[in-house]
Amino acid sequence: MLAIIGGSGLTQLSNMEIERREVVRTPFGEPSGALVFGRMCNEPVVFLARHGYGHTIPPHLVNYRANIWALKDARVSGIVSVASVGGIRAELAPGTLMVPDQIIDYTWGRKSTFFEGGDTPVRHIDFTHPYDQALRQRLLAAISAAGEHAVDGGVYASTQGPRLETAAEINRLDRDGADIVGMTGMPEAALARELDLPYAAIGVVVNYAAGRWSSEAGIHFPDIEIVLQESMLRVRNVLECLCRV
Ligand code: HPA
């Protein structure tokens, strides 16, 4: 059973047949909301809205540990994350889909490991390749099956938020080699790895990053909203195909 974590613009899956909702608790507190169990194309899936079902939890306050723990507890086989992002390069225009293969973490102060405190021995994970290669390939196959195109590979920069970046910060991320920028990629990916859960992400570019092209003068939120709505319809189709590939 695959898990889908939906981000901004994807707080429910309209093409999912819902079977039950489960409110769970974990040793790390409560997840962002109930786990929604059901089927897509007859395959079992579980869905979780990262920011809560009313979109009330900002990126830095998401209980990433509880979310990942709850999904592990539900015995999912892997996690597909859907995340809206800003595009740093010209070819990553709003509406572009990307399946990143690398991450740079600029977040701070988030609980980013299960292995701390008490009697828990420290564990260092290998994170050379932060995304699961097999799940990435499956995601890319689903994107093709849905008649969509995605950029295969790229560097996701995870910033702290909830504010958007300055133009100088985006220039820095660009110099660092980042292609897209979002606020929730970390510590989510690392926590999934700590629990040996395959994890891949689909980045949905909803705006040019601060200071770039159409965002040169500033980021226009009503435009983001339009792209978000239109793109998430496409992502829903991709997710439906995921159960077939
Ligand atoms: N920056 C950070 N996170 C984002 C952006 C952005 O420009 N767009 C959507 N999520």
UniProtKB/TrEMBL annotation:
<comment type="pathway">
    <text>Purine metabolism; purine nucleoside salvage.</text>
</comment>
<dbReference type="InterPro" id="IPR000845">
    <property type="entry name" value="Nucleoside_phosphorylase_d"/>
</dbReference>
<keyword id="KW-0660">Purine salvage</keyword>
<feature type="domain" description="Nucleoside phosphorylase">
    <location>
        <begin position="2"/>
        <end position="216"/>
    </location>
</feature>
<feature type="site" description="Important for substrate specificity">
    <location>
        <position position="165"/>
    </location>
</feature>
<dbReference type="GO" id="GO:0016757">
    <property type="term" value="F:glycosyltransferase activity"/>
</dbReference>
<dbReference type="InterPro" id="IPR035994">
    <property type="entry name" value="Nucleoside_phosphorylase_sf"/>
</dbReference>
<comment type="similarity">
    <text>Belongs to the PNP/MTAP phosphorylase family. MTAP subfamily.</text>
</comment>
<protein>
    <recommendedName>
        <fullName>Probable 6-oxopurine nucleoside phosphorylase</fullName>
        <ecNumber>2.4.2.1</ecNumber>
    </recommendedName>
</protein>
<feature type="binding site">
    <location>
        <position position="8"/>
    </location>
    <ligand>
        <name>phosphate</name>
    </ligand>
</feature>
<feature type="binding site">
    <location>
        <position position="184"/>
    </location>
    <ligand>
        <name>phosphate</name>
    </ligand>
</feature>
<dbReference type="Pfam" id="PF01048">
    <property type="entry name" value="PNP_UDP_1"/>
</dbReference>
<keyword id="KW-0328">Glycosyltransferase</keyword>
<dbReference type="InterPro" id="IPR010044">
    <property type="entry name" value="MTAP"/>
</dbReference>
<feature type="binding site">
    <location>
        <begin position="207"/>
        <end position="209"/>
    </location>
    <ligand>
        <name>substrate</name>
    </ligand>
</feature>
<feature type="binding site">
    <location>
        <begin position="50"/>
        <end position="51"/>
    </location>
    <ligand>
        <name>phosphate</name>
    </ligand>
</feature>
<feature type="site" description="Important for substrate specificity">
    <location>
        <position position="221"/>
    </location>
</feature>
<comment type="function">
    <text>Purine nucleoside phosphorylase which is highly specific for 6-oxopurine nucleosides. Cleaves guanosine or inosine to respective bases and sugar-1-phosphate molecules. Involved in purine salvage.</text>
</comment>
<keyword id="KW-0808">Transferase</keyword>
<feature type="binding site">
    <location>
        <position position="183"/>
    </location>
    <ligand>
        <name>substrate</name>
    </ligand>
</feature>
<comment type="subunit">
    <text>Homohexamer. Dimer of a homotrimer.</text>
</comment>
